[in-house]
Design goal:
Layout lengths: L24 H9 L4 H15 L5 H25 L6 H9 L1 H37 L7 H17 L2 H29 L22 H10 L17 H31 L4 H7 L1 H49 L18 H20 L4 H33 L6 H24 L1 H4 L4 H28 L1 H6 L4
Helix pairs in contact: 1-7, 1-9, 2-8, 2-9, 2-10, 2-11, 3-8, 3-9, 3-13, 3-14, 4-5, 4-13, 5-6, 5-11, 5-12, 5-13, 5-16, 6-11, 6-12, 7-9, 7-11, 8-14, 10-11, 11-12, 13-14
């Protein structure tokens, strides 16, 4: 089968093997939105962006990033309808740019999502340990004791049917949003730090370049991760042609509103003239103090609890995403076939789920015995993910209009040229910024950044080479690449 052969029907038969599920709009929305960890972004990332990123222009950075990704979503959601195949970006890039680039991108995407899964356990262990020891006056134990709780819970839920994970993520994310909305509401109603009214100055063009707008945009783009995996759950969603596009736009819009309003609230809660200095002196402490000032100890404690549930939601969502990448690559014969097993009752990729859990555990055990600091490991893993996923989205942003053009799908000039062009320019700029600032993303070490960049590039090249080898030696495997 030609990699660029047209799709003849929007209801093409399912690939074998295939997963089973019955997620609706809300289940998919909360499952995907949870990957963004909005509470972690509000408490941990927004103060950092104000101090070292775009400064007072932080709300505009979030709005700009959201608009860039919305332009990408125009072609992305259209592609999800005309190419009804599982596999996510792995399938889309293969359809648009060929099996070689598709397989390379699929392996790199797998690395990115696995890094989120495995790399978040240390952070989870730290925040849960702090909650138990400091807030609840419990025992002071190493992070990996608490991290093991996250690992066990995510392993069990990931093995089960996807609807169970969706229900857990729905509850956790709903509670997160309640706390965030309550904080924003209290700041806006009270009139900010001086109770004189909320200032819209951060939205004014005069403040867009107060800090580093490029760095702010880079950080903001990284906070929208996850919306793209709506297509990865295609086989587990009822009526995917309708639900997937709606959820994709809903996730981007919700994240843009939450991040934009929360950053504006944070700036006003301390004061436009004082917030940068306060956030620079103590990023996390400044947000904690803001929560206490406007929501009291109750809201502050609730936020501390929600950071833990938000962290677990990230781990569970990343586990499910990683397992499905393992499943799809296995179904194509790239990874061992056994990983593509489907549980008879749960309809889940249970063997791929177990493999994901074991791989995450092994990597963390290695990290513990080599003496790598938990926060350094977490930073490096998230840095890899930020760069990798942005890169894969960029490649997909190129692949989608190429596929549309080659197969003559009818659409307006806006969706054919304008929106793809804006997304490619915006994502390309973000990718260049990520490459230039990669040492900063992974913790500041140039040697580490170089090693990790070699790993990422090497994995992409491995995919290219494997596809070329399969083309000559295993044509049946080559034909299946990208769930084709």
């Amino acid at each position: 089968m030609d990699a660029l052969s047209p799709v003849v029907s929007e209801v093409a038969p399912r690939s074998q093997p295939h997963l089973k599920g019955n997620m609706g709009f809300l289940s998919l929305f909360f499952s995907v939105m949870a990957y963004n960890a909005p509470m972690v972004v509000v408490i941990g990332i927004i103060p950092i962006m104000v101090s070292t990123g775009a400064g007072l222009g932080t709300p505009v950075s979030f709005i700009t990033a959201g608009l860039i990704l919305a332009t990408f979503a125009v072609g992305f959601t259209r592609m999800s309808k005309i190419m009804p195949k599982p596999g996510g970006f792995y399938s889309m890039i293969t359809a648009g740019l060929g099996r070689e680039i598709g397989l390379g991108s699929g392996l790199v995407a797998l690395l990115g999502y696995f890094c989120v899964y495995a790399g978040t356990f240390p952070f989870g262990g730290l925040v849960l340990g702090e909650l138990v020891h400091v807030t609840l006056n419990g025992p002071d134990l190493p992070w990996y004791v608490w991290g093991t709780i996250f690992w066990v819970a995510s392993s069990i839920l990931g093995f089960m049917k996807v609807e169970l994970s969706a229900k857990v993520l729905t509850i956790f994310l709903f509670l997160e949003l309640v706390v965030i909305v309550a904080y924003d509401f209290m700041v806006f109603v009270s009139g900010g730090a001086n109770h004189a009214g909320v200032s819209a100055a951060p939205l004014a063009p005069a403040h867009w370049l107060d800090g580093s707008f490029p760095l702010g945009l880079l950080l903001a783009l990284g906070m929208y991760g996850g919306f793209e995996v709506t297509v990865l759950f295609r086989e587990e969603v009822r009526n995917p042609s309708r639900i997937i596009p709606r959820v994709t736009y809903a996730v981007i819009a919700t994240a843009m509103v939450i991040y934009g309003l929360s950053s504006l609230a944070f700036i006003n809660s301390i004061g436009v003239d004082q917030v940068v200095e306060a956030a620079t002196a103590d990023p996390t402490g400044s947000m904690t103090q803001s929560l206490q000032d406007f929501g009291g100890q109750v809201l502050s404690d609730a936020a501390n609890v929600m950071v833990n549930t938000s962290t677990f939601a990230v781990i569970l969502a990343a586990h499910n995403i990683t397992a499905r990448y393992f499943f799809n690559l296995s179904a194509d014969g790239i990874l061992p076939r056994k990983l593509s097993g489907v549980h008879a009752r749960h309809g889940s990729p249970h063997i791929a789920s177990v493999a994901t859990s074991i791989a995450g555990l092994v990597l963390n055990v290695i990290m513990i015995f080599t003496g790598v600091a938990a926060i350094d490991f977490y930073t490096a893993m998230l840095g890899i993910t930020s760069f990798v996923i942005l890169g894969v989205i960029f490649v997909a942003g190129v692949a989608v209009p190429v596929y549309m053009h080659r197969h003559g799908h009818e659409h307006s000039a806006w969706s054919r040229y304008f929106f793809p062009g804006v997304s490619i320019i915006g994502l390309g700029a973000g990718l260049i910024l990520a490459a230039v600032n990669f040492p900063l993303l992974v913790g500041g070490s140039t040697s580490l950044a170089t090693s990790l960049m070699v790993l990422i590039a090497g994995l992409f090249v491995l995919g290219l080479v494997l596809a070329m080898v399969y083309r000559r030696t295993r044509p049946e495997t080559y034909a299946r690449i990208g769930r084709q």
